[in-house]
Write a sequence for this structure.
C-alpha cells in the first residue's frame, strides 16, 4: 500500500467539491458537499444502529437497496433528524436536486446530514446553492478538501487519506474522508465516512470487504459513548481501474480488502485523536482473551470508561479503573490472571500482574502518560483472542463544547 494525495478524488473518475449555502446562520464555513463518479458504480454502505434514525439515513437506505449509488450530497449544520415527514421530504429533495444537477436519477444519490437534531432543514438554501455546488466539483485534491470542510462540524482536524495498491499488475486507488469528533461510539461505522475506489468488484464482495473493515476499525472507536442518529459509511467503486473483475475470494480480493481495512483504521484513529476536547489519543490493546470478539468488547469497555479517560487526561496511572472496566464488560475472565501496562513514546511500564499492583515509580508513570499518544496494554491469559480499540481522554473542553453546542 502506497500513500498518495487526492483523498476521494484520488481514484480515477471521481470528483468532489463543497460550498457555503447558509444552512446554519452565523457560520462562514462551507456546509454543502458533493461527491460524484463519472462512471456507474457498485456501492455498499452501513448505517447507524440507533433506533432513532435521521431522514438522510432512511432515504439513503432506500437508495442503497440496489447497490448502485453514484453520487453523495452531504450537509453540515443541521442533522435533519427528528423532523417528521417534512424531514423525509427534504432529504428526498436533496437527492433529486443533486441527481438533476449531475444528470443521473435521484435514486443513485445518497444523502447525508450532520449537525443539530430536531431543527427543520432549510432545503431552499440547498436548492439555491445547487448550481454553485455543481460548478464547484473537480477531480483533484482541492475538490476533496472543499468537500471535507463542508461536512465538518466540531471537528478540529481534517481526517482523510488515499492510497494505491496493485491488482493484476494495475494501479488501483482508494480514497476516503471522515467527519466525527463527538457522539462517537459506533457499532456500524462512524458519523459520516465516504470512500471511493476505482476497483472493479462485485457488489457482494464490496459489501463483504466493507463489513470486515468496519468491524476492525470504526466499530472499535469510542469518544463519548453516544451513537449518533446520522451514522453512515458508504463506498463507491466505479471500475475505472480496469482490473480483471474481482468476483471470488482470491488473492486480488485479499489485497483489496486489506487496503480498505488499512484505510479505515487510519481514519478511525484520526477520528479518535480528534475527539471533542481531547488532548490524547488512547489505544487499548487487549491480548489473551478467549476470542477476538471477546477481546474487542473488553477493550472497548476500558476505552469507554469515563474514569479511565479522565485518568489519562490527568496522567494518573490508576490501573484499578482498568480492571473495574473489564469487570463490567459482560465477558467471563479470571481477574487473577490480568496484567496491565502503559506505554508511549516515553517508554513502557508494567502496573499490574496477576490482578494485583506492582511497585512502580509514579513519576515515571506520569512521564509516560503525559505524551499525546498513549497505550494501555492488557493481557488476560485466557486464550489467543486479541483486539485494538481507539479512544481519547475526557477533558474540561468536552463539557464546554457540548454545553453550548446549539449556540
Amino acid at each position: 500500500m502506497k500513500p498518495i494525495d487526492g483523498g476521494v478524488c484520488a481514484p480515477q473518475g471521481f470528483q468532489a467539491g463543497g460550498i457555503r449555502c447558509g444552512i446554519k446562520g452565523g457560520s462562514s464555513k462551507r456546509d454543502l458537499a458533493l461527491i460524484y463518479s463519472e462512471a456507474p458504480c457498485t456501492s455498499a454502505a452501513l448505517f447507524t444502529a440507533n433506533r432513532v434514525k435521521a431522514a438522510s439515513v432512511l432515504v439513503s437506505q432506500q437508495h442503497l437497496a440496489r447497490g448502485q449509488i453514484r453520487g453523495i450530497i452531504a450537509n453540515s449544520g443541521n442533522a435533519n433528524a427528528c423532523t417528521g415527514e417534512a424531514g423525509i421530504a427534504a432529504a428526498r429533495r436533496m437527492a433529486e436536486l443533486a441527481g438533476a444537477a449531475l444528470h443521473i436519477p435521484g435514486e443513485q444519490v445518497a444523502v447525508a446530514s450532520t449537525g443539530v437534531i430536531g431543527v427543520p432543514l432549510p432545503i431552499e438554501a440547498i436548492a439555491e446553492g445547487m448550481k454553485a455546488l455543481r460548478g464547484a466539483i473537480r477531480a483533484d485534491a482541492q475538490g476533496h478538501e472543499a468537500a471535507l470542510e463542508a461536512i465538518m462540524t466540531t471537528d478540529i482536524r481534517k481526517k482523510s487519506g488515499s492510497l494505491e495498491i496493485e491488482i493484476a499488475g494495475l494501479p488501483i486507488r482508494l480514497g476516503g474522508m471522515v467527519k466525527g469528533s463527538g457522539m462517537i461510539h459506533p457499532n456500524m461505522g462512524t458519523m459520516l465516512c465516504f470512500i471511493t475506489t476505482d476497483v472493479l468488484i462485485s457488489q457482494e464482495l464490496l459489501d463483504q470487504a466493507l463489513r470486515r473493515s468496519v468491524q476492525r476499525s470504526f466499530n472499535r472507536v469510542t469518544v463519548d459513548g453516544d451513537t449518533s442518529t446520522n451514522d453512515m459509511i458508504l463506498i463507491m467503486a466505479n471500475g475505472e481501474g480496469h482490473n480483471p473483475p474481482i468476483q471470488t475470494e482470491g488473492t486480488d480480493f485479499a489485497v483489496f480488502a486489506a487496503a480498505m481495512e488499512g484505510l479505515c483504521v487510519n481514519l478511525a484513529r484520526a477520528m479518535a485523536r480528534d475527539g471533542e476536547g481531547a488532548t490524547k489519543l488512547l489505544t487499548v490493546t487487549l491480548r489473551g482473551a478467549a476470542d477476538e470478539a471477546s477481546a474487542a468488547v473488553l477493550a472497548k469497555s476500558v476505552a469507554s470508561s469515563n474514569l479511565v479517560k479522565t485518568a489519562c487526561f490527568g496522567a494518573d496511572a490508576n490501573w484499578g479503573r482498568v480492571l473495574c472496566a473489564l469487570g463490567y464488560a459482560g465477558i467471563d475472565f479470571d481477574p487473577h490472571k490480568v496484567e496491565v501496562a502503559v506505554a508511549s513514546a516515553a517508554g513502557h511500564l508494567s502496573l499490574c500482574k496477576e490482578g494485583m499492583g506492582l511497585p512502580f515509580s509514579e513519576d515515571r508513570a506520569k512521564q509516560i502518560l503525559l505524551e499525546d499518544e498513549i497505550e494501555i496494554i492488557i493481557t488476560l491469559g485466557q486464550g489467543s483472542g486479541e483486539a485494538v480499540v481507539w479512544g481519547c481522554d475526557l477533558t474540561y473542553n468536552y463539557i464546554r463544547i457540548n454545553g453550548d453546542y446549539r449556540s
